[in-house]
Specification:
The protein is α/β, with parallel strands linked by helices and 133 residues long. The protein contains three helices and seven strands. A seven-stranded parallel β-sheet has the order 3-4-2-5-6-1-7, sandwiched between helices. Helix 1 crosses helix 2.
């Protein structure tokens, strides 16, 4: 399993904007996307995905198991692509082709995300780090 950590810095200050771009790049080639986050973040992401990107339709739904892009407060048992917005969420134990861990700017979530890196590493996952500037 491949795990990609997207570390936000520079002009990248909004985790939801980054997730929207990543979803837009993955969909429709990947039609089994799950985004995990808290209810408030998911509600805001839901609205943004209806508005952006302009000219595209990103079929999604909160807690909608039939939607190709599912917005969930817990990781599902399976997804082709799992995007995690919640540094406090437990490490998921389902089956995923790829997991994207979003590292927001600032130091608040970094200790927990550093621990997630170590936890994923212990599972034998293939880890990658991307610095967004």
């Amino acid at each position: 399993m491949r795990i990609d950590f997207y570390e936000m810095s520079g002009r990248f200050t909004d985790p939801l904007e980054v997730v929207g771009v990543l979803i837009g790049k993955a969909f429709p080639a990947t039609c089994d996307i799950a985004v995990v986050g808290d209810r408030d973040m998911l509600a805001e992401l839901d609205q943004r995905l209806w508005d952006k990107p302009a000219g595209r339709f990103l079929a999604h739904g909160i807690d909608d198991q039939q939607a190709p892009i599912r917005l969930l407060n817990q990781a599902p048992a399976h997804a082709a692509l799992l995007i995690n917005l919640d540094a406090e969420a437990p490490l998921p134990d389902g089956r995923y082709d790829r997991v994207l861990e979003i590292v927001p700017p600032g130091e608040d979530a970094r200790p927990r995300l550093r621990q997630r890196w170590r936890d994923w590493n212990r599972t034998g996952a293939e880890l990658h780090h991307h610095l967004l500037k």
